Amino acid sequence: MTPLRSVVLAGGGTGGHIEPALAFAECLRRHDPDIRITCLGTPKGLEAEIIPARGWHLELVPAYPLPRRPGAELLRTPGRMARAMRATRSVLDRVEADAVVGFGGYVAVPAYLAAWRRRTPIVVHEKDMPPGFGNRLGARLTPYVGLGFPHQNGVSGRLVGVPLRRAIATLDRPARRAEARAFFGLDRDRRTLLVTGGSQGARSINLAVTGAAAALAAAGTQVLHLTGARNAEVRPMPGGGPYVTLPFTDRMDLAYAAADLMVGRGGAMTCAELAAVGLPAVYVPYPHGNGEQRRNALPVVEAGGGLLVEDAALTPAWIEGTVVPLLTDASRLDTMSDAAARYGRRDGDEMLRELLLEAVSAGTTTGVRR
């Protein structure tokens, strides 16, 4: 097998692109502490904040959204793309890249094009439905496409799963439950509902659950509520039961371990993590956009690992009538947990690494290395 010396990872703009890239970086480094890993990003993307803070090397290159309508911005696109490709090619040359692995976002487009022009092996990882433009382009330039979920369409490839942080991929929820509940100041023995709308929060979820706080407390349950950075002022109505609110936590592994059920959105990373650790969930897809979150959550729900409710239907009364009975039904929760775990995968990082090694080996045998 051809050794890997230098790999460039391209994925930015949102945590959904960045997190699997960094989980994959951890996998590569775990196998080879000396491998050179370079992350590509843009100055305006979330990656400029997250990636250096996690200790990974980030190279900033220009990248631009492609205009959806004719106009002046569309006329500027060829020149902008040429500049982005030149800047990216310069990075690939400087780090002597053996391969480019793309996870989507604006920065993936010049990365794929520069690698293709340089005859550097390309691997695409796609987990979203529908796939973004960048990964649709990348999939036309390489046969090495790894899919995060079996239900995806829009690009063809091999099912590999989603690279997950090691703390999530190796999580034993029952074994860590007591530790996790103590960490968050929760009662050790009460059934626990985890609530989160993502890093920024979701006002509709926050209001529905806090409005049902009294019913949750009356049922003998407790809540760990991650309100989000923009909704930190949310507080539950008086109810008397344990109800812990935090703007966010960097220990989602322990949050999952503490919980028996979660209420949250349907982002692809969220769906992948919950299924992998076998945590049942009530998925409340983001009501705007192209319906991606509903498509993400529906397969695990159909597999028996969760429930799905539309954002407009999520009310305190719905929480009281549906979530409270579920949270207090141990047998049903166990069945849903088993179903979620059967659907989920914990080895996405290792499977994607195997695909990468195949791509590099094939590229070397045909004279394509850099």
Architecture overview:
- With 370 residues, the protein is α/β, with parallel strands linked by helices.
- The protein has 2 domains: 6-164 and 347-365, Rossmann fold; 171-343, Rossmann fold, CATH 3.40.50.2000.
- It is 46% helix and 15% strand.
- The strands form 2 sheets. The chain has a 7-stranded parallel β-sheet, sandwiched between helices. A 6-stranded parallel β-sheet has the order 10-9-8-11-12-13, with helices on both faces.
- β12 (281-283), α12 and β13 (306-308) form a beta-alpha-beta unit.
- α1 (15-31) crosses α15 (348-365), α7 (173-183) crosses α10 and α8 crosses α13.
- The model has no long low-confidence stretch (mean pLDDT 89).
List keywords for this structure.
370 residues; alpha/beta; Rossmann fold; 7-stranded parallel beta sheet; 6-stranded parallel beta sheet; 15 helices; elongated
Alpha plus pi helix count = 15
The CATH superfamily of the largest domain is Glycogen Phosphorylase B
Instruction: Describe the global form.
Output: elongated
Kindly give the count of domains. 2
**Radius of gyration computed on alpha carbons:** 22 Å
CATH architectural label of the largest domain: 3-Layer(aba) Sandwich
How many β-strand runs?
Answer: 13
Quickly give the structural class: alpha/beta
- Give unreliable regions as ranges: none
CATH class of the largest domain: Alpha Beta
